Amino acid sequence: MANIYLMRHGKVSGVPALYGHTDVSVDRHIQCVLAENVEAKLSFSRVVTSPLIRCSELAQQLVERNSELSLHVEPEFMEMNFGELDGVPFEELGQLGDTLDAFSRSPIDSPLPNGETLSVFYDRGIRAWQRLVKNTHEDTLLITHGGVIRVILAHTLKMNWKAPELYQRLQIANGSVTHLETLPKFDGWVTVKSIGLSLTDIAPNIGD
């Protein structure tokens, strides 16, 4: 048995916008607090991270605090690329606001201009996830993004990953942890133990 903790990065410093591949940072103090809480509440020996700075900076802090941790950067765990809307403040969208509304109502049918389609994003995320599960034999922390965590849950629970409700109504808060358990001996069988918990709500060292 191995535990995999899916952690969404902390709240970014940018103005309200769709942040996909835009490399926006998290305040240094927030990263430090998250690192301290992760150390206090979770037990793991490997860190896997999206390369975007809002994730990788926290991963690097954790490794600096504990030299026994291994670190792997996986580009396929990046958030969805939102194309022409990526990183644009909501208040500056203008007529593109209608495009965003259509995408929100049906992301599978209304892809964003020059953005990644939902199907490509899903396939990318699940390809990386299946590879991670196959090669996981030790407790692992994956620092990634809300969209990635949602598609992993949809895949694991055999939910409809095309449904807009998955992205609109499933709350995956910044800094939250989703706990999955895998059994490598049983062809990567995965069980969902908890979804979107705040670090403050987790008992210390739940991996022990």
Q: What does it look like?
A:
The protein is globular. It has one domain: Rossmann fold (3-Layer(aba) Sandwich). The protein contains six helices and six strands. The chain has helices spanning 28-41, 53-65, 96-105, 118-134, 146-157, 164-168, and strands spanning 2-8, 46-49, 70-73, 140-144, 177-183, 189-197. It is 34% helix and 17% strand. β2 (46-49), α2 and β3 (70-73) form a beta-alpha-beta unit. It comes from Vibrio agarivorans. InterPro entries: His_Pase_superF_clade-1, His_PPase_superfam, PGM_Phosphatase.
Number of helical segments with 4 or more residues: 6
Using the alpha-carbon principal axes, give the shape.
Answer: globular
* The CATH topology: Rossmann fold
Report the helical percentage. 25-40%
Keywords:
single chain; 208 residues; alpha/beta; Rossmann fold; six-stranded mixed sheet; 34% helix; globular
Task: Report a brief summary of the structure.
This protein is of the alpha/beta class and 208 residues long. It is 34% helix and 17% strand.
Q: Could you outline the blueprint of secondary structure elements for this entry?
A:
Blueprint: E1 2-8, H1 28-41, E2 46-49, H2 53-65, E3 70-73, H3 96-105, H4 118-134, E4 140-144, H5 146-157, H6 164-168, E5 177-183, E6 189-197
Parallel strand pairs: 1-4, 2-3, 2-4
Antiparallel strand pairs: 1-5, 5-6
Helix pairs in contact: 1-2, 4-5
